[in-house]
């Protein structure tokens, strides 16, 4: 789960689950209101709530729709903005619990995220809390997040959550500016006792359009570094909007004479779905193309039957190099990044090194040590 709307990196479909029928993750952006002004913010979050947000009753109805997917409903993530800006958050959590769901929450690292609030989240039956670390020091993280003190708040919140028995996840955004901090952040994730590190490769939308992305070969190097780190890390490492991580990881394994591993198979509209604060249903939070609205139609039917969702699940229909790629089924490219770059959800992912490198990318060019040399 993730405040950046996780759309890849999760395990392959659990036995008996078909992603054309049931997503693994449903993320509801309960509000776009947030006190922070993070550099990468997809939502262009503002201090004020949208008066057209789903009401408490509509939110609980949404939970019932999630439960309607069947005996094995998706994981539910409440994101934002900052979910703590919803005064009815705990009423919503009670409603989720009453429908048999175990929600996760991705709060912003503001002073509201104190021990008392975390204790209340634990008492409300929250399954996991995510905090963000985008720099390895207070200076670098706080500059990225746009607010002094957010680094310390994140560390204190993670420590308190762990003491309260809450499962912790750390989310990190990778840009040209933050890549050098990855080794130290990885160490912090271990020190905090997190069970998962979710590494999000920037999609240039919202305020994030102003940030410098990695080049495609650099992205491959980061993916390789993550693959190597995952071999020893006591927590799980997943990527978001970097499905080429699977290909890079398998190239590394083959070079060692190991069998390829299942790194993850979900994607926008294919195992993942995003519901906006106003009920619009998007394949991901980074692809603001609506497939319907839960105020007018069931999330189940939108996810299963909308032409947009069905199109995204047909990887043979992708355009350009992504459509012809031999790794289409195991990768498929970031649909959100393709949309941001081309305006077409079925376009090619410009960050994929095999797509974007004119001379033809070779696995021998991958250098996981590149990350360490940045420091």
Protein model, in words:
It comes from Natrarchaeobaculum sulfurireducens. Keywords: 4Fe-4S, Iron, Iron-sulfur, Metal-binding, S-adenosyl-L-methionine. With 375 residues, this protein is of the alpha/beta class. It has a single domain (25-374), classed as TIM Barrel (Alpha-Beta Barrel), CATH 3.20.20.70. Helix content is 34%, strand content 12%. The protein is built from 14 helices and ten strands. The chain has helices at residues 56-67, 89-98, 115-123, 138-145, 150-163, 182-191, 216-230, 244-255, 299-305, 307-313, 320-324, 335-342, 353-356, 369-374; strands at residues 25-29, 75-79, 104-105, 128-132, 167-174, 196-201, 236-240, 267-268, 271-275, 281-282. Strands 1, 2, 3, 4, 5, 6, 7, 8, 9 and 10 form a ten-stranded mixed beta sheet that branches. Helix 3 packs across helix 5. The longest helix is centred in the middle third of the chain and has 15 residues, at 216-230. 52% of the residues are buried.
């Amino acid at each position: 789960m993730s405040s950046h709307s996780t759309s890849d990196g999760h395990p392959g479909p659990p036995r008996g689950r078909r992603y054309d029928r049931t997503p693994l993750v449903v993320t509801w952006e309960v509000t776009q209101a947030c006190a922070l002004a993070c550099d990468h913010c997809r939502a262009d979050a503002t201090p004020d709530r949208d008066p057209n947000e789903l009401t408490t009753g509509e939110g609980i109805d949404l939970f019932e729709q999630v439960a309607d997917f069947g005996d094995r409903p998706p994981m539910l993530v409440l994101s934002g903005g900052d979910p703590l800006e919803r005064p009815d958050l705990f009423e919503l959590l009670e409603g989720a619990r009453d429908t048999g769901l175990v929600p996760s929450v991705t709060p912003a690292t503001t002073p509201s995220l104190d021990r008392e609030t975390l204790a209340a989240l634990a008492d409300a039956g929250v399954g996991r809390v995510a905090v963000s670390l985008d720099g390895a020091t207070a200076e670098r993280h706080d500059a990225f997040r746009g607010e002094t003190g957010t680094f310390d708040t994140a560390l204190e919140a993670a420590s308190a959550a762990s003491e309260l028995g809450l499962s912790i996840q750390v989310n990190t955004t990778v840009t040209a500016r933050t890549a050098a901090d990855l080794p130290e952040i990885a160490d912090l994730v271990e020190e905090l006792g997190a069970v998962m590190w979710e590494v999000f490769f920037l999609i240039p939308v919202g305020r994030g359009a102003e940030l410098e992305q990695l080049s495609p070969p650099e992205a491959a190097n980061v993916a390789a570094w993550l693959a190597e780190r995952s071999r020893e890390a006591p927590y799980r490492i997943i990527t978001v909007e970097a499905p080429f991580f699977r290909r890079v990881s398998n190239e590394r394994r083959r070079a060692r004479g190991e069998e390829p591993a299942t790194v993850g198979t979900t994607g926008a509209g294919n195992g993942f779905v995003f519901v906006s604060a106003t009920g619009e249903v998007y394949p991901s939070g980074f692809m603001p193309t609506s497939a319907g609205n839960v105020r007018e139609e069931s999330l189940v039917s939108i996810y299963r039957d909308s032409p947009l969702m069905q199109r995204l699940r047909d990887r043979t229909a992708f355009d350009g190099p992504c459509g012809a790629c031999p790794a289409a089924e195991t990768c498929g490219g970031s649909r959100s990044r393709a949309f941001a770059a081309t305006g077409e959800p079925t376009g090619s992912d410009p960050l994929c090194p095999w797509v974007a490198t004119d001379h033809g990318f070779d696995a021998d060019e991958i250098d996981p040590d590149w990350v360490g040399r940045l420091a």
